[in-house]
Write a structure and sequence with these properties.
single chain, six-stranded antiparallel beta sheet
Amino acid sequence: MDYAFILCFDEKTELSFNTLIELIAESGVSQYMVDAKIPPHISLDCFSTDNIQPIVNALDEHIACFTAGGIVWPSLGMFVPNVLFAAPVLNEYLLNACININRLVQPLSTVGEKGFYLPYQWVPHTTLALQLDNDGLQKAIAIVSKQFSFITGRTNRLKLVAYKFKPYKEIKTWDLV
């Protein structure tokens, strides 16, 4: 089965992103994020395993390696034509979180998503709309660019989720301090 570790945000940051996601959904361009009940987040790792428990146990033992941290999203980005996202500044906090989770997970799993979530191959992003076509991407950009402004926020949870599972399915959540 496919899984992901995601960083989730404090209430204020989550509200900022949900406002943008809901504007896109209300326009009819893409309702996927709302329909699948996917919270705003940054994915740190995607992987496959037939036995998730050893990974849960390993993270339980090493959760102190992961802390809450500050993130800044100054711009928008896209994976043409399917995804519109808010692009955070890749800071030391984000890079270390990606490196640490990959070091923990790799010996116990198979790399997922063609390695795009491995350190130094990873493009951190917070998805605003997905499953778009070219026309939908242009419409989503027009909607969001009118409302988007510099977002600053904090992470407060690390979640293990079943990846590519609709509706969104959480396996376990760890609070970060």
